[in-house]
Design a protein that fits this description.
This protein is mainly β and 437 residues long. 4% of the residues lie in helices and 47% in strands. It is elongated and about 105 Å long. The termini are far apart. It comes from Psychroflexus salinarum. This is DUF4842 domain-containing protein.
Length: 437
């Protein structure tokens, strides 16, 4: 019990003497109606006989520092009695606080709640209920009855408590076995050829997996995007540096990773040994690739697959997500329940469908806040991956691996995602696929 009182550092109880009186003891004053008043006085509950010097002395406020549970901060009381709520001002009477008169008719009234507040409407005190953990600290817990007599003003005592807000420390123990992992960088630069403009810097996107048989979303080790745009304010993605974690205790010629590399939307893939990474870094400092130009792809080979997007009303350039990467985002407004279709284009460089191939159709089915998005390929086309962004706000990235919804497929001609949004009829959608012939 001593420890309990010690922990309730700012716990106060305010009690008052019960007394009943009329304006004149033997005279009924007809001008007055029946009513009750509540008087509050008290000390700190945690005080023992040897700690009285720290008691709060109510009514002697000048020059003293107020505490969170100081009775002198109390401004008004809220009393619930017989199903009615009464908000009553408090007044100082000597060393005690007393409510204004509550005028009610004669009878018995059950008090079910009593709380004191400061001038900023912050709760300071409350009377505990019977059976609660704080009921033992008061002489009379809630609820209790008061009796009101005709043409009498009656004062009742009521005990209230103030408990300091306190959260005990919570802790556990965690131990780590430290394993040192190192990371190698393989920085890649690529360009591609246009018939009219010649060599241009290519956009790059890479996905790193343990090996060619483990390429699911759960197996993904690292992904990144580089737009090759040296005029942009974002310098972090101008050159793509692929991160390859490795174990320094194992020879590098015994470690390798499977990499899917999109060069300007065209998929290249291959297994990269770590000793080859060391050789590239020592000799050149980076890997230089050429797409559709004379040059060596090194260990990467073309797959016959390229990137595709569902046609939309905003390009990535329009959204200022890139200065060169092609692709569309669709802003849908005032959407009603039903189906909506969009063409899926592969290889539509510069957002020009004349440069691409119509590869399939995207169907968006809306039912309230639930949306089903289905990719269907035209004859002769399949998909190896699909990525979907759908949300209330515009996309913030053009890297499909960060759209939030990914499926890894094998020669699929159809694929679906079931997603949801706020249901207000407005949303954004970006549908990407790796399309193969």
């Amino acid at each position: 019990m001593k420890n309990l009182f010690k922990n309730l550092n700012l716990l106060f109880v305010c009690t008052a003497m019960i007394f009943m009186y009329s304006c004149q003891e033997d005279e009924i004053v007809s001008e007055e109606t029946s009513g009750i008043e509540l008087v509050f006085t008290g000390d700190r509950v945690g005080n023992t006989a040897d700690a009285k010097a720290g008691d709060v002395k109510l009514g002697a406020n000048e020059g003293k520092e107020f505490e969170v549970c100081d009775m002198s901060l109390a401004s008004y009381a809220v009393i619930e009695m017989a199903g009615m709520s009464y908000t009553i001002d408090l007044n100082v009477w000597g060393d005690s606080y007393k409510t204004d008169l509550i005028e009610v008719g004669p009878g018995s009234y059950e008090v079910t709640s009593c709380q004191l507040y400061d001038g900023d409407d912050n709760p300071l005190y409350a009377t505990p209920t019977e059976g609660s953990e704080f009921a033992r600290f008061v002489d009379q817990a809630l609820p209790f009855n008061v009796e009101v007599e005709n043409y009498r003003k009656i004062e009742y005592e009521i005990d209230v408590l103030c408990v300091e807000n306190f959260t005990p420390p919570q802790f556990g123990f965690v131990f780590w076995n430290v394993n040192i992992k190192e990371v190698k960088n393989l920085c890649v630069f690529a360009n591609y050829c246009e018939p009219d403009t010649g060599h241009q810097v290519a956009t790059l996107e890479a996905f790193v997996y343990p090996n060619e048989n483990e390429t699911s979303e759960a197996d993904l080790i690292w992904s990144g995007f580089g737009d090759g745009d040296y005029n942009s304010e974002d310098t972090d993605n101008e050159l793509l540096c692929i991160k390859l974690p490795y174990d320094s205790s194992i020879p590098t010629d015994e470690q390798s990773y499977y990499i899917e590399l999109f060069v300007n939307g065209v998929l290249l893939e291959g297994t990269m040994p770590l000793d080859r990474v060391d050789q590239i870094n020592e000799e050149e400092g980076y890997l230089h690739l050429n797409e559709d130009c004379e040059g060596d792809y090194d260990i990467f080979s073309k797959t016959g697959c390229e990137t595709g997007f569902a046609f939309g009303n905003n390009t990535f350039v329009d959204l200022e997500l890139t200065n060169k990467r092609w692709g569309w985002a669709n802003e849908l407004t005032n959407v009603q329940d039903g189906s909506y279709t969009f063409d899926i284009w592969a290889g539509a460089g510069q957002n020009n469908t004349n440069n691409g191939t119509l590869a399939g159709v995207l169907t968006v089915e809306v039912s309230g806040s639930d949306v089903t998005v289905t990719y269907d390929m035209n004859q002769g086309f399949t998909m190896s991956e699909t990525h979907l962004y759908l949300g209330d706000n515009p996309p913030t990235t053009i890297a499909p691996g960060q759209f939030g919804n990914t499926h890894n497929l094998e020669n699929a001609t159809s694929d679906s995602f079931s997603v949801s949004y706020s249901g207000d009829g407005d949303f954004w959608i970006v549908a990407h696929a790796v399309i193969c012939e």
